[in-house]
Automatic annotation (TrEMBL):
Annotated PANTHER family: HIGH-AFFINITY BRANCHED-CHAIN AMINO ACID TRANSPORT ATP-BINDING PROTEIN, HIGH-AFFINITY BRANCHED-CHAIN AMINO ACID TRANSPORT ATP-BINDING PROTEIN LIVF
Protein name per UniProt: ABC transporter ATP-binding protein
Domain ABC transporter, residue spans: 2-231
Keyword Phosphoprotein: no
InterPro entries, A to Z: AAA+_ATPase, ABC_transporter-like_ATP-bd, ABC_transporter-like_CS, BCAA_Transport_ATP-bd_LivF, P-loop_NTPase
Entry keyword set: Amino-acid transport, ATP-binding, Nucleotide-binding, Transport
CDD domains: ABC_TM1139_LivF_branched
Pfam family, one: ABC_tran
Natural source organism: Microbaculum marinum
Family: Belongs to the ABC transporter superfamily.
An annotated Gene Ontology molecular function: branched-chain amino acid transmembrane transporter activity
Amino acid sequence: MLEVRGIDAFYGEVQVLRDLSLSVNAGEVLCMLGRNGAGKTTTLKAIMGLVRPRSGAVVLDGTDLSRLPAHEVPRHGVAYVPQGRRLFAELTVAENLEIGLMARHKDRDTLDRTLALFPVLKERMKQRSGTLSGGEQQMLAMARALCLEPKVLLLDEPTEGLMPSMIATIRDSVSQLRDQGVAVILVEQRVDAVLPVADRVAFVENGRVRDTVDVETLRGDLSLVHKYVGVGH
């Protein structure tokens, strides 16, 4: 479905991604694990066209996204929830969601299906998003992305700084999206946030995917976690 084929990416003259390749299928959750600076976030930005690969390709259902301007990528069915959420703080919950709907010309039915995943947002529609709790802001960021009805959802550390109950809500929503056939690429730092929801795990080091394993293999042997992330995770 989505294939990242041997991309090289730079910030200025500093190379961050080196011949990085990965793939994710419909109805699958692929987690990217690795230390800070390994290239995980840059991979998501490269998929979205926010960082332009100098070589390689990002292909979704036969379309080379890496040849498109960044604003065209969401229209092909890729949604991105960046680290830090990037909500429009002065706009209401409803207004933030409306922006998501406009990106792919979706309607009220799409909004209703999205809000079914995050019922608490129904009670906050007129509230400014900047006044929500951290967990509610993360739900809104995900809901806004889902208003695109994406084929692929990119999540950059969605559980960072959240209380356990909110982490469980986010995790449950990811599982439901997988069951609905959405492909999810999840960037995380903590293996305990990954094991309950991922199907496969890609370990990233120095801008490359070094190993990819299914989650059941990882449950039985955490040596790769210790190698690429650290003993404390």
